[in-house]
């Protein structure tokens, strides 16, 4: 977590960095800080707890001029989110400043060592050891900043993306990464931008270098960009062209990114299957994994690893792969899988699902599986992300940037890719007859229009939200592939409105959660037409018998549930394998409206960050 931005060039650095930090605020918003070196060689370091806007207000009263600077927006790991713990951290002599995203695991021993050498620590952060360590090496070994960074990083255990600014070379910034992302933007007239992702860079240049693990980048106004490994081997920078558009990272007239992203789903789902699905010719193909299709078709089992919403998408994937491709799937929380000494071998295929492609646990789970010889595949949204680069192959979701912390369009895009994958493997295995295959792909092509139709009912969603906005608890129930949808609905509600919510398989309710039901309890039930419909109707009756309030997501034309539910939202009929793509939309919308009505910060919910790059 945490977002970092740095600039060196001919323009004023502060406004560029400030704007960049606002774009990266989704990565953490506990505190923010910017250090700028001005023309008189004064290093002005402004830090504020809270949002970037608070830093902006504070710095407006001070000198923030200078053409080189570094900035940080923090998601607190070590130490409270106060001004002192905010980055940048400055060396004891005030000559150098540093920003860091990641965690230094051996910070305790490094700190003790540095304290014994006379360094005084001001903050409670792990990061502060880095600046003192680099300073110590620089002075003792009489080396320049880049070399001191290199030596220092050889004794650091943990994850880092750092940028160091030093008064003794105002023409240079030194950056390094391991496990936390860092992108270098190559601007005009010798300008360079460094950032945790490309969003702060895109309006200045589309030429970028995605740094690899254990690389150091030196950007210099006179000498340009040079990249070294931390073993000191110079490398040729691999420059890539960004396809990201500025409009994609702006709100485009919506009040919140989350609402914009919910409404983008007809387009994002279409973008996801564009060129991968042809209904007239009757084929599905995923170019990114074509070399692994035979292996997938022969697989005895597939393991899916993910966290949060992406884990819910993996659960939907389990139903799809088992039903269509008849391959057993195990869905694992990446954080549990990596520490469980899992049994994996060369025959296994591990698929990681991650919007950001940077989630630390998912990345570590994949690395573990790779080290045991498994084939590792990725389903990521962010192009060029760490997961997409370490996997043997994969498929992008093409949902476009997702800025709201609550994942919405990424989920439906992940489910779309998983559907395409399951369909193509099923065909390869010969498990899926023509009629069923054609029916599913025909229905899949209609999903964007059907999502659009649900989105037209925003007033109805708002009305329901107004009724339950003050609820303290909520239950979400579903069966079969609606169970992950229930989990996802509950996660959406709790993360942005802070209402306690639980997702359950509907039949499991009577084994405990039913005790919670009274006339105050809203129970959201996914009761669309499908094999479990009648069973779900019985579960609804059980809730009604205890005076619980039923908000049902039903298939258009349903009369049975309509008659017994307190509220209902109708969604268009579709193939049962595709139902999660539609049933999830009303739950996203209701969570959104409830959060807005409660005055919550929808796009930046408390304690959360979009990209969880710490374990
Ligand atoms: C969901 O709304 C959250 N943002 C969170 O659960 C998220 O899905 C999780 O942190 C995984 O992120 P990833 O998809 O980027 O790996």
Automatic annotation (TrEMBL):
<keyword id="KW-0315">Glutamine amidotransferase</keyword>
<keyword id="KW-0808">Transferase</keyword>
<feature type="domain" description="Glutamine amidotransferase type-2">
    <location>
        <begin position="2"/>
        <end position="222"/>
    </location>
</feature>
<keyword id="KW-0677">Repeat</keyword>
<dbReference type="Pfam" id="PF01380">
    <property type="entry name" value="SIS"/>
</dbReference>
<dbReference type="GO" id="GO:0005829">
    <property type="term" value="C:cytosol"/>
</dbReference>
<feature type="active site" description="Nucleophile; for GATase activity">
    <location>
        <position position="2"/>
    </location>
</feature>
<dbReference type="Pfam" id="PF13522">
    <property type="entry name" value="GATase_6"/>
</dbReference>
<feature type="domain" description="SIS">
    <location>
        <begin position="292"/>
        <end position="431"/>
    </location>
</feature>
<comment type="subunit">
    <text>Homodimer.</text>
</comment>
<feature type="domain" description="SIS">
    <location>
        <begin position="464"/>
        <end position="605"/>
    </location>
</feature>
<dbReference type="InterPro" id="IPR029055">
    <property type="entry name" value="Ntn_hydrolases_N"/>
</dbReference>
<dbReference type="GO" id="GO:0097367">
    <property type="term" value="F:carbohydrate derivative binding"/>
</dbReference>
<dbReference type="GO" id="GO:0006487">
    <property type="term" value="P:protein N-linked glycosylation"/>
</dbReference>
<feature type="active site" description="For Fru-6P isomerization activity">
    <location>
        <position position="610"/>
    </location>
</feature>
<keyword id="KW-0032">Aminotransferase</keyword>
<dbReference type="InterPro" id="IPR047084">
    <property type="entry name" value="GFAT_N"/>
</dbReference>
<dbReference type="GO" id="GO:0006002">
    <property type="term" value="P:fructose 6-phosphate metabolic process"/>
</dbReference>
<dbReference type="InterPro" id="IPR035490">
    <property type="entry name" value="GlmS/FrlB_SIS"/>
</dbReference>
<dbReference type="InterPro" id="IPR005855">
    <property type="entry name" value="GFAT"/>
</dbReference>
<dbReference type="InterPro" id="IPR046348">
    <property type="entry name" value="SIS_dom_sf"/>
</dbReference>
<dbReference type="InterPro" id="IPR017932">
    <property type="entry name" value="GATase_2_dom"/>
</dbReference>
<dbReference type="InterPro" id="IPR001347">
    <property type="entry name" value="SIS_dom"/>
</dbReference>
<comment type="function">
    <text>Catalyzes the first step in hexosamine metabolism, converting fructose-6P into glucosamine-6P using glutamine as a nitrogen source.</text>
</comment>
<dbReference type="GO" id="GO:0004360">
    <property type="term" value="F:glutamine-fructose-6-phosphate transaminase (isomerizing) activity"/>
</dbReference>
<dbReference type="GO" id="GO:0006047">
    <property type="term" value="P:UDP-N-acetylglucosamine metabolic process"/>
</dbReference>
<dbReference type="GO" id="GO:0005975">
    <property type="term" value="P:carbohydrate metabolic process"/>
</dbReference>
<dbReference type="InterPro" id="IPR035466">
    <property type="entry name" value="GlmS/AgaS_SIS"/>
</dbReference>
<dbReference type="GO" id="GO:0046349">
    <property type="term" value="P:amino sugar biosynthetic process"/>
</dbReference>
<protein>
    <recommendedName>
        <fullName>Glutamine--fructose-6-phosphate aminotransferase [isomerizing]</fullName>
        <ecNumber>2.6.1.16</ecNumber>
    </recommendedName>
</protein>
<keyword id="KW-0963">Cytoplasm</keyword>
């Amino acid at each position: 977590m945490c977002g970092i931005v740095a600039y060196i060039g001919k323009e004023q650095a502060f406004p560029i960095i400030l704007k960049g930090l606002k774009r990266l605020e989704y990565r953490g918003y506990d505190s923010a800080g910017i250090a700028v070196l001005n023309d008189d060689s004064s290093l002005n370091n402004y830090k504020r707890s809270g949002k970037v806007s608070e830093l902006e207000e504070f710095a407006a009263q001070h000198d923030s001029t200078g053409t080189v600077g570094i900035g940080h927006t923090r998601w607190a790991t070590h130490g409270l989110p106060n001004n002192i713990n905010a980055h940048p951290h400055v060396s004891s002599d005030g000559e150098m400043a540093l920003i860091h995203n990641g965690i230094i695991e051996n910070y305790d021993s490094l700190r003790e060592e540095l304290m014994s050498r006379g360094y005084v620590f001001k903050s409670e952060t792990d990061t502060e050891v880095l600046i003192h360590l680099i300073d110590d090496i620089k002075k003792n070994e009489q080396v320049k900043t880049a070399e001191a960074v290199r030596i220092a990083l050889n004794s650091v255990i943990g994850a880092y993306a750092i940028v160091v600014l030093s008064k003794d070379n105002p023409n240079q910034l030194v950056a390094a990464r391991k496990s936390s992302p860092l992108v270098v933007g190559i601007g005009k007239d010798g300008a360079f931008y460094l950032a945790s992702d490309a969003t702060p860079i895109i309006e200045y240049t589309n030429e970028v270098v995605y740094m690899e693990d254990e690389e150091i980048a030196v950007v210099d106004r006179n000498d340009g960009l040079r990249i070294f490994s931390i073993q000191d081997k110079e490398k040729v920078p691999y420059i890539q062209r960004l396809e990201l558009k500025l409009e994609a990272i702006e709100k485009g007239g919506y009040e919140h990114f989350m609402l914009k992203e919910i409404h983008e789903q007809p387009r994002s789902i279409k973008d996801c299957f564009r060129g991968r699905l042809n209904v007239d010719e009757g084929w599905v193909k995923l170019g990114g994994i074509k070399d692994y299709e035979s292996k997938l078709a022969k697989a005895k089992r597939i393991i899916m690893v993910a966290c949060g919403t992406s884990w819910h998408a993996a659960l939907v994937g389990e139903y799809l792969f088992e039903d269509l491709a008849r391959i057993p799937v195990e869905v694992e929380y990446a954080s549990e899988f990596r520490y469980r000494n899992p049994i994996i071998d060369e025959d296994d295929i591990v698929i990681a699902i991650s919007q950001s492609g940077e989630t630390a646990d998912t990345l570590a789970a994949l690395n573990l599986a790779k080290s045991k010889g498994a084939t590792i595949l990725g389903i990521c949204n962010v192009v060029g992300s760490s997961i997409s680069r370490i996997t043997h192959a994969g498929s992008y979701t093409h949902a476009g940037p997702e800025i709201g912390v609550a994942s919405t369009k990424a989920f439906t895009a992940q489910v779309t890719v998983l559907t395409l994958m399951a369909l193509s493997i099923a065909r390869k295995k010969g498990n899926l007859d023509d009629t069923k295959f054609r029916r599913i792909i025909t229905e899949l092509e209609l999903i964007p229009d059907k999502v659009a139709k649900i989105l037209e009912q925003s007033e109805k969603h708002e009305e329901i939200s107004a009724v339950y906005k003050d609820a303290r608890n909520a239950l979400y129930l579903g069966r079969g592939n609606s169970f992950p949808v229930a989990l996802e609905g509950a996660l959406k509600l709790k993360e942005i409105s802070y209402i306690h919510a639980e997702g359950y398989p509907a039949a499991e309710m009577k084994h405990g959660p039913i005790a919670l039901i009274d006339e105050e309890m809203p129970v959201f039930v996914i009761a669309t037409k499908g094999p479990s419909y009648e069973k779900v109707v019985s579960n609804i009756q059980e809730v009604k018998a205890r005076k619980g309030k039923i908000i049902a997501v039903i298939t258009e034309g349903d009369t049975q549930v309509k008659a017994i539910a307190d509220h209902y939202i109708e969604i268009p009929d579709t193939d049962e394998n595709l139902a999660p793509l539609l049933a999830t939309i009303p739950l996203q919308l209701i969570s959104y409206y409830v959060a807005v009505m409660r005055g919550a910060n929808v796009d930046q919910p408390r304690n959360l960050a979009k990209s969880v790059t710490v374990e």
